Amino acid sequence: MSGDLQVQGLFYRAGGTEILRNLSLTLTPGRVACLMGPNGSGKSTLLKMLAGVSGKTPHAGRAYLGGADLFEQTQAVRARHVSYVGADLRTEFSLSAREVVEMGGPNAGASQVEGAMNACACWEFADQELRTLSGGERQRVALARAYLQDS
Fold first, then answer.
1. Strand ranges for the chain from DSSP E
2. What is the chain's mean pLDDT, rounded?
3. Which of 22, 97, 100, 110 is 20 to 30 A from 135 in CA distance terms?
4. 91 close to 131: Cβ distance less than 8 angstroms
5. pLDDT digits (tens, 9 = 90+) for 50-98
């Protein structure tokens, strides 16, 4: 699925506080967009909602990717088209950077994992435990996992 990401009239309220109000936007493939705003203005809420990782759904509005309604898709279908990389990647388990990246493509071969990690400049610490990496290194691992997801 390719095409524009279109958000139309999105509203979201949490605990009586309006987080998103009548938000509409169109993003075109191949273009860079910047989402800016103060803390608590709904940037992460919007992105998590679109990616389907927050469990939150809008109170009103729709979002379409290539004409398909994102909010009507299952998590598995949406994950084929949308990746979300949060601010910080953490794990409670003793996992290497390579193991974390492999989670992005459970059927990926070793060369695909290595390629994703090389593309995100994190292959050099593939065998290090995620918890020992700096914030920037963990971010690169998270990007490699999303890259391997191929959405």
1. 5-14, 17-27, 60-65, 68-69
2. 89
3. 110
4. yes
5. 888 877 777 889 999 988 998 898 888 888 888 888 777 878 889 999 9
Whether 120 shows a pLDDT value over 80: the answer reads yes
Amino acid at 30: G
With CA atoms as reference, report the closest residue to 149 among 77, 82, 90, 97.
Answer: 82
Q: Which residue has the tokens 């990007």?
A: 143
Contact call for residues 47 and 27 (beta carbons, < 8 A): no
Whether 52 and 79 have beta carbons less than 8 Å apart is answered as yes
Rg (CA), the chain: 17
Nearby residues of 118 by Cβ (< 8 Å), 6 or more positions away = none
